[in-house]
Write a structure and sequence with these properties.
CATH topology of the largest domain: Alpha-Beta Plaits
Distance between the termini: 34 Å
Order of helices and strands: EHEEHEEEHEEEHHEE
Largest sheet: 11 strands, mixed
CATH class of the largest domain: Alpha Beta
Number of strands: 11
Shape: globular
Number of domains: 2
Length: 260
């Protein structure tokens, strides 16, 4: 049976999503729990390989070798019993054999939260970047417009392999202020490693007035990581949704009452 898991997690305790030896990861924890339920080690894939410290409320996983006699609802409840509080499985269901959480995805959406005021908030601190200086959100949005579309994003991310293609299609990139919170939302068919955080670091420089809007096309064409801004801290980033032909995981639009 092919199972789909829709999940959320606090990225702080983990060294990223992808399974690694001798370190705690989200996929490693879930694989360990599924091994107990399946009676064998599963083969799992995720829609997005989030970095260490990055959160998710709309991650999706699939495993193609679940025993046919398992009840998906009981699998969900058992996983939550083993994985809480850092990981939560919102849904578990049987899907067609050709479904892959990674390869069936049409787009992924991330939100980066920035708390922009002159004093921090201990409750938002785990999921947003504290920034005490004013930011020009209009200028940030204008700069973001230059990045939308199909481009070589070498200046904003690391390639999985030296000769791998660097073109990605950025469908959406926008900044929105809600009181003291600024949310930067990015949606693309796929992302390079650290691409969203590098874009955020660059847009913050624009918002601070340290970089001009007109520089964005030059940054893109440089195809040089040194041309863009710094990589923003991971804890402000959250994978909020993954788009499939059957719909979305997570929340495809901004939520209220939190940094994501």
């Amino acid at each position: 049976m092919n199972l789909r898991l829709d999940l959320a997690y606090d990225g702080a305790p983990f060294r990223g999503f992808a399974k690694q030896r001798d370190v705690r990861t989200v996929q490693g924890e879930i694989d360990s729990a599924l091994t107990k339920l399946f009676g064998h080690e599963p083969t799992t894939v995720g829609a997005g390989r989030t970095d260490a410290g990055v959160h998710a409320i709309g991650q999706c996983m699939s495993t193609s070798d679940a025993p046919d006699d398992l009840d998906p609802v009981k699998v969900r409840d058992s996983l939550n019993g083993m994985l809480q509080p850092a990981i939560s499985v919102a849904d578990c269901r049987s899907v067609p054999d050709d479904f892959s959480a990674r390869f069936s995805a049409r787009s992924r959406a991330y939100v980066y939260g920035i708390l922009q005021r002159d004093y921090p908030d201990p409750f938002l601190a785990p999921t947003s970047l504290f920034h005490s200086e004013p930011l020009d959100v209009d200028a940030m949005n204008e700069a973001a417009g230059h990045l939308i579309g199909a481009h070589d994003f070498s200046s904003f991310g690391r390639l999985p392999e030296p000769d791998a293609p660097a073109e990605r299609t950025l469908f959406e990139l926008r900044c929105r202020r809600d009181g003291d919170l600024i949310r930067i939302r990015a949606r693309a068919n796929a992302f390079l490693h650290q691409m969203v955080r590098s874009i955020v670091g660059t847009l913050v420089q624009v918002g601070e007035g340290r970089r001009s809007v007109e520089e964005m096309p030059e940054v893109l064409t440089a195809r040089d990581r040194a041309a863009a801004g710094p990589v923003a801290a991971p804890h402000g980033l959250c994978l909020i949704s993954v788009e499939y032909d059957t719909g979305w995981t997570g929340v495809p639009f901004f939520g209220k009452g939190s940094s994501v």
